[in-house]
Amino acid sequence: xxxxSQTPHIKHVFVYGTLKSTQxxxxxxxxxxxxxxxxxxxxxxxxxxxxxxxxxxxxxVLGEVWELHETDMARTLQVLDAIEGTNQPHEPDLYERxxxxxxxxxxxxxxxxxxxxxxxxxxxxxERxxxxYLERGGKRFACWPST
Length: 147
Description:
- The chain is mainly beta.
- It has one helix at residues 73-84; strands at 12-15, 35-47, 52-67, 95-104, 110-118, 134-136, 139-141.
- The protein has a single domain, classed as Roll (Hypothetical upf0131 protein ytfp).
- The strands form two sheets. It has a five-stranded antiparallel beta sheet with strand order 1-3-2-4-5, with no helix packed on it. Strands 6-7 form a two-stranded antiparallel ribbon.
- It is globular and about 35 Å long.
């Protein structure tokens, strides 16, 4: 995706690390959300110390889905891209912004949302993988922070 790439009608962002409402970058969001809900998606989660990394996989990763006004999405993605090291001029991507299905934890609802996947694959070693440990509704999820 290029710097201005945005898919019309997507107004959700899935976060699983420092941008969650209880984490250190929660105040970095440039726009107030319509709602924030617990949600999960398929993938593999890694602990890189002060932040996590999401990669493709078939595990269940727990996080939050932020719903924003459609008019706030361009500004939000611009700010989040800068935080995540995505689409920055003359810099290699640390994360890649993608669209994926996200499932609400407490509702039978799925939405398409933007999420950030880690690009430095050589850092995603087996010993850094967060194994599913948190159980909710009979399902086991990987979650960060894991302690």
